[in-house]
Amino acid sequence: MSFKPYSIVMHARGLITTILLIALACATKPAFAAKAWRVKENCTLIPNEANDGDSFHIRIGRRHYVLRHLWVDAPETDNRFPDRVAEQAAYFGITPEDAIKVGKEAARFSKAFLSQQPFTVYTQFADALGSSQRDRDYAIIKVGDTYLMDALVSNGLARIHGLQKVPPDGPSESLTRMRLKGLENDAKRNKRGGWAYAGAPANRMERFQQMNRPAEIKAQTVVLTRATAVYSLEDPSRMLGTLGTGTAITVLRAESQNMARIRFKVREDQTMEALARISDLGL
């Protein structure tokens, strides 16, 4: 009887040890369960209306897969997910409407890029989730010597975003990130893709106003070098007549991007104001 408490304690310790070992095994299981990278050659694009700039239906051998590209995120092609579209637009500094335009351009670009020739896929067949009815796996795609992610970023058609992993025999994550940032900076400088919209007016009315903002010209006297049509101030589409070569006029100001307000003599004691095309005035 004197040994019973000791037996109970040892049994309890053994049970705790067993539980800890099970917990440790469960905690370390994902590291052992990580899938190996696979390299799949001669892959081809499967036409599908769900294909966009960074997600595609493809054929590997005889099997049909849906892949989501690692490292990059092309803008959406519609506004089904407005919060995501707003986030993508903010990255480029553009409007959601322009972001969707860039998304459609990215979809066309990726389709053409992947249709050039069979391509190579690097994947662990890790689930990328998403709204597709089929399983969707993360992957990196390469056509010839060019990675699709490089081509998208270089053309301003995707942001550097999302899961960032590389195959063990490829460039490191840090080198891949540096390479993409360099391509992105070049796209910004040259205003490609989404970067071309950056700084543009926020809506159609602002764009209209910008297009019709008066040109910058100084008040000055001009001698016409050719016959020049003049137009009504009230109705710029109505031509009033023509001023002959050698007529001296005073340019008062620009009224729009194309038209200037001018003053000229009708008689020695009478002047008149009208509109003339800035290009006709040689300005």
Walkthrough of the structure:
This protein is α+β, with helices and mostly antiparallel strands. It folds into two domains: 38-204, Beta Barrel (OB fold (Dihydrolipoamide Acetyltransferase, E2P)), CATH 2.40.50.90; 212-277. It has six helices and 14 strands. A six-stranded antiparallel beta sheet has the order 9-12-13-14-10-11, with no helix packed on it. A five-stranded mixed β-barrel has the order 1-2-3-6-5. A two-stranded antiparallel ribbon has the order 4-8. A hairpin with a 4-residue loop joins strand 12 and strand 13 (259-267).
Structural topology:
Blueprint: H1 4-33, E1 38-45, E2 55-60, E3 63-69, E4 72-73, H2 82-92, H3 96-114, E5 119-127, E6 136-143, E7 146-147, H4 148-154, E8 159-160, H5 173-189, H6 204-211, E9 220-223, E10 228-231, E11 239-243, E12 248-254, E13 259-267, E14 270-277
Features:
single chain; 283 residues; alpha+beta; OB fold (Dihydrolipoamide Acetyltransferase, E2P); 2 domains; 6-stranded antiparallel sheet; 5-stranded mixed beta barrel; 6 helices; disordered N terminus
